[in-house]
Amino acid sequence: MDWRDVVDELDAGVERIARTLEGLADDALRGASALPGWSRGHVATHIARNADSLWNLLKGARTGTEIPQYPSLERRNADVAAGAGRGRDELVADVRATQARFSEQARSLPGSAWNAPVRAMTGWPHPAWYTVFRRWNEVEAHHVDLAAGYGPADWPEPYVRWSAAATLADMAALPKDALGEVAGLRITATDSGETAELGWTPGGPEASGSARALLGWLSGRSDGAGVHLRPDGPLPVPPPWPHEPSGFPEESGF
Questions:
Q1: Half-sphere exposure of 6 (CA within 13 A, CB side)
Q2: Spatial distance between the Cα atoms of 7 and 139, rounded to a whole number of angstroms
Q3: CA atoms of 196 and 207, how far apart (whole Å)
Q4: Using CA atoms, how far apart are residues 214 and 47, in angstroms rounded to an integer?
Q5: pLDDT in tens, 142-184
Q6: Domain covering 159-230, topology
């Protein structure tokens, strides 16, 4: 997908998050999310602070001055903790305002800046345009993490098509020691035909399912419902997601 279309998808996705939050009472926002140790308020605050952090990368691309995504992991965690206890209206306003700020930065970024190199918090580089795709994973996955009725079945089809394909490609490029329990597996999306062979050899184990089912499992947002393993047995635990991207078009210079 073109990054411009993704920005529109982000705005719609964050508005869905805002409506989910508006349907929760303050005490529900203090309740447990799907992420260990985090309340729903933590997740909502992280969604907002992530928008700010990725805004930093676009600002760096615009100015030609490297700006870190976050000052540090410790600062990121402290900011999330500091905002987690706010009331519903303040959380909703923060989520909406930070997305609007991110979108404005993205839409107004000069074309010459979109291939500028920026760097993820963990250190790997990517062109500035990939920032909007990173944000897409954050928005859709963390909406599920709110544990408030939104799940992989609700993900928009354009998101599923992009993220499932990217996840399979990126996993196939991971070193063997990063694959964990899925090493030796072949994974196939039955609807798109896309496949990742993770050290697989003929006769080895295979997992298959729709792109949506695979993405839910591989992202850790489902228990693997709709994914079938041959030979029969429990599904392996996938490695932490999302993964470093496996590559970019040649014109990106990466």
A1: 22
A2: 11
A3: 10
A4: 24
A5: 999 999 999 999 999 999 999 999 999 999 999 999 999 999 9
A6: Nonspecific Lipid-transfer Protein; Chain A (3.30.1050)
d(CA 145, CA 38): 10
Residue 150 CA to residue 58 CA, distance in Å, equals: 29
Distances (CA, A) of 49 to 95, 97, 98, 99, 111: 8, 11, 8, 10, 25
Angle of helix 157-172 versus helix 211-218 axis, rounded to 10? 60
Q: Which among 125, 132, 62, 167 has a CA at the least distance from the CA of 253?
A: 125
Return the domain boundaries, the chain: 3-148, 159-230
For 164, the token pair is 């499932």
3-state DSSP assignment of residue 59: helix
Q: CATH assignment of 3-148?
A: 1.20.120.450
pTM value surpassing 0.90: yes
How many residues can be counted in the chain?
254
